[in-house]
Design a protein that fits this description.
- There is one protein chain.
- 73% of the residues lie in helices and 5% in strands.
- It contains eight helices and three strands.
- A hairpin with a 4-residue loop joins strand 2 and strand 3.
- Helix 2 runs antiparallel to helix 8 and helix 5 packs across helix 8.
- The radius of gyration is 21 Å and the shape is elongated.
- The two termini are 32 Å apart.
């Protein structure tokens, strides 16, 4: 669930809560907390975009593209059944364990920059996690169907639950349970992303490719990307606590 979606849901919930439950104090506390997280999120996102724009202009000495880097890293790790394909958009890079594909955005797939090398290696880190049955990735994959269901319904269930919290508190509790699944997913994502970056940087350092990569720049780019996942997880946790406070603070 994106931060913008959480924010929109929370604005509506705060408005409803102040009328339906009288929980204005909790709403104000949450507003302060969430606005702080939103500001930090904006700063992190701007910093990430700035660094990738900067490092996208720093070419690799060997001229290898993101696609070349990805294939090299996969083959060096004995993985030959994963395809590297181009996907539309900007910073839309991801690994799909369902069809075993490393999907690189157009700006990464065809680019021979440090940013492209870092992103391509990071996504291949996920492919290696999949091939080695990395625990957190396996757990996250198993949660995908549950989180997909939760994301589709929880916003409406939470809003209905807040409207009817005095008469039917179980509805809000069910919505909280669904939201808790998405929060859990966000926190499980953290070690998955951090480990993928660790694998990427380790390979870049020991591979002959690493001789043409500014290791400090690659590390900085991947660290900035990791911060976005941390902020998203904290935002989700703050929102979950807020809904729990509404449930516990309802009138008897």
């Amino acid at each position: 669930m994106s931060i913008l979606t959480i924010f929109a849901t929370s604005i509506t919930a705060a408005y409803i809560t102040s009328d339906a439950t009288g929980y204005m104090g909790g709403s104000m506390l949450y507003w302060v907390l969430f606005i702080g997280i939103a500001i930090i999120s904006y700063i992190v996102q701007m910093n990430l975009q700035h660094k990738f724009e900067k490092f996208s202009k720093m070419p690799l000495g060997n001229g290898m593209t993101g696609r070349d880097i990805a294939l090299k890293m996969l083959h060096d790790n004995g993985i030959y059944d994963v395809k590297v394909i181009s996907t539309a958009g900007r910073l839309t890079d991801h690994y799909n364990p369902a069809d075993r594909t490393v999907n690189l955005s157009e700006g990464v797939y065809n680019s021979s920059s440090i940013a492209a090398a870092a992103v391509a290696a990071h996504e291949c880190g996920h492919a290696i996690q999949h091939a080695t049955a990395y625990g957190p990735l396996t757990m996250r994959s198993k949660l995908v169907p549950v989180v997909s269901f939760a994301s589709s319904w929880m916003t409406w269930i939470l809003l209905i639950g807040i409207f009817t919290v005095q008469m039917f508190p179980a509805i809000l509790l069910f919505g909280i349970a669904l939201f808790a699944m998405t929060t859990l997913f966000s926190f499980i994502t953290l070690p998955v992303e951090i480990d993928a970056s660790r694998r990427a940087l380790a390979w870049l350092e020991r591979s002959p490719v690493g001789n043409t990569v500014n290791q400090r720049a690659a590390t900085s780019a991947l660290r900035s990307a990791a911060y976005t996942y941390i902020v998203a997880a904290l935002s989700s946790l703050a929102t979950l606590i807020y809904y729990i406070m509404i449930y516990l603070g309802r009138r008897d």
